[in-house]
Amino acid sequence: MQNFTKTDRIEPEKRGSNERKKDFKEIYRVFKPVEAESQADRCVQCGDPGCHVKCPLHNYIPQWLKTVANKDSHMAFRLSNESNPFPEITGRICPQDRLCEQDCTLQQDGYGAITIGSIETYISENGFKNGWKPEFADKMSEKKVAIVGSGPAGFSAATYLLRSGIGVDMFEKASRPGGLLTYGIPSFKLEKEVVFRRFKWLEEAGMKLFLNVEVGKDVDFKELTENYDAVFVGIGAEASKKAKIPGENSEDVFIAIDFLKNIQQKHFGEAYDEHFNVENKRVVVIGGGDTAMDCIRTSLREGASSVKCLYRRDGHNMPGSRKEFRNAKEEGAEFIFHASPKEVLLNDEGKVIGIEMLKTMLSSKDDSGRQSVEIVEDSAFRVDADIIIFALGFNNTSPNFLSENGVETDKWGAITANDDMQTSKPFIYTGGDCFRGSDLVVTAAQDGKLAATAIAKKLLRK
Ligand SMILES: Cc1cc2nc3c(=O)[nH]c(=O)nc-3n(C[C@H](O)[C@H](O)[C@H](O)COP(=O)(O)OP(=O)(O)OC[C@H]3O[C@@H](n4cnc5c(N)ncnc54)[C@H](O)[C@@H]3O)c2cc1C
Ligand code: SF4
After folding, report:
1. Which of 111, 212, 257, 440 has its CA 20 to 30 A from that of 98?
2. In which domain, by residue range, is 208 found?
3. Are 159 and 86 contacting, i.e. CB atoms less than 8 angstroms apart?
4. How far is C-alpha 459 from the chain's CA centre?
5. pTM of the prediction?
6. Among residues 375, 392, 409, which one ends one of the domains?
7. Residues 24 and 124 occupy one common structural domain
8. What CATH number is attached to the domain comprising 48?
9. Closest CA to 305 of 328, 286, 284, 282
10. Could you tell me if 99 and 124 lie in one domain?
11. Are both 13 and 109 inside the same structural domain?
12. CA separation for the pair 151, 116 (Å, rounded)
């Protein structure tokens, strides 16, 4: 260990931008054993590891790095899969530069963080190649939990309930499981077989998955509360935000998730809306987060003639991962910073011809160090476009079945819960975006884990 003075940080090999733009396959290769082992060997094994604290799942990172460096692959697989319901997924799509890797001692000392996410992916992929699978309880109790929603929150809750010996029936309104892992995050970041492989194992462990079933419409929520020992609600945050500017209701103005979902449906061979076709179109994406980068890179792969990203702050203040920003730039996106949308410009037939923007500047820092965005007077300028995509985040929706069954929500429509993820109703639990507002896969996974642990404690009196 502690080989950081001899071994530099390396990233896994990345496909060239010209090649990768032609398809939706993942752009990073998984580390080879020798790469993972030498990268893991850089770890200094800190006594109070910042990576472990910063990781929302509190993964045993230094421990599994040591086992990888010592070539004990099986122990690494077991450790990694204990605290994380799907390590090869978080390893691929966590914004590590804002989480575990940001608080790695080597990053802070200027040596470059351990490539924690890539090693995490390697550990499980290498384990699967060796024929190892996640473990579940040998013996099931008579208890059964209904899970509403198959996104990372429900997916994680199901994993930990099945491990405790509690049966799971999962209800999902879409035709495939995974929530935004499947219909939001594009395949060039996360190939869908990676997600479905784990669902197959959950089904083998006894979970019943009911697809195309919307709770509150096809199944009564009250019936679930009566027929199961507990219910977990992981329904995400589905209401997209708009900019509230003139012209935004044109059919050439897309909401990010509608666009990404329809393109994914097209790739699955499912029915989709062809008006989301961007081939040979000039696309403008408004927003600076990871969803904006996903829309940019999807548009480039779908044959857009040009893709511009307009963002109201600057490159340093983008909320998404630096890695995704770099990838979007390499693939040919143009970035215009300090720009805020004023009006979508339409022709006489209501078709988009461009967008009028206003220049912005950042104020001086307030006491918390934050700079607000200020509009520069008389600064309007026009950007030509055929398609505008808004990637401005999500609001919570609170379906009627929640209030009808006494499940409390806050003023933003998010479900409220205590530290055990229990809602205002004793046997109803929640987690993920419907509780936090739109956030991350790893935080949804942690919520699902906490809820499952609390449910198991209650139902099995552990
Ligand atoms: C485009 C995009 C890219 C992203 N990229 C990243 C990333 O790279 N890294 C990262 O960490 N996070 C990313 N996120 C955020 C992350 O995907 C979410 O925070 C996470 O998926 C939330 O998980 P969840 O289980 O709470 O909700 P969701 O993933 O939204 O899943 C909720 C599920 O519930 C189902 N459902 C809803 N209502 C019902 C009902 N009544 N009956 C039955 N089923 C129902 C939905 O169909 C859905 O499948 C991204 C988000 C988007 C939109
Ligand atoms: S789950 Fe995410 S934050 Fe935690 S160790 Fe893995 S990549 Fe890092």
Report:
1. 257
2. 144-237+395-460
3. yes
4. 30
5. 0.95
6. 392
7. yes
8. 1.10.1060.10
9. 282
10. yes
11. yes
12. 24
The domain boundary, picked from 84, 104, 129, lies at 129
Q: How far apart are CA 105 and CA 101, in angstroms?
A: 9
- Calculate the alpha carbon distances from 433 to 260, 368, 414 in Å: 18, 26, 8
Residue 137 lies in a domain: no
Confidence of residue 5 (pLDDT cuts 50, 70, 90): confident
Give the distance (Å) from ligand 1 centre to CA of residue 296: 19
Query: Domains in the chain: how many in total?
Result: 3
Look at residues 425, 415, 417, 429 and name the one whose alpha carbon lies nearest to residue 457: 429
Which tens digit of pLDDT belongs to each residue from 133-179? Answer: 999 999 999 999 999 999 999 999 999 999 999 999 999 999 999 99
Label residue 204 exposed, middle or buried (CB < 10 Å: 0-12, 13-18, 19+): exposed
Which residues sit with their C-beta closer than 6 Å to ligand 2? 55, 57, 59, 61, 84, 90-91, 94, 96, 99-100, 116-117, 120, 442
Res 462: pLDDT: 60
The verdict on 370 and 251 lying in the same domain is yes
- Average pLDDT along the chain: 94
Q: Give distance in angstroms: CA of 30 to centre of ligand 2.
A: 16
Residues 262 and 227 in one domain: no
Is residue 461 very low, low, confident or very high in pLDDT (cuts 50, 70, 90)? Answer: confident
| Mean pLDDT, range 402-428, rounded to an integer | 96
Pick the more confident residue, 344 or 393. 344
Q: Is 192 a domain residue?
A: yes
Query: Are residues 255 and 285 part of one domain?
Result: yes
Q: Report how far ligand 1's centroid is from the alpha carbon of 222 (Å).
A: 24
Q: What is the pLDDT of residue 446?
A: 98
Helix spans in 229-357 (H): 256-268, 290-301, 322-330
Determine the residue of 88, 94, 321 to mutate for testing ligand 2's pocket, defined as the one with the most ligand atoms within 8 A of the Cβ atom: 94
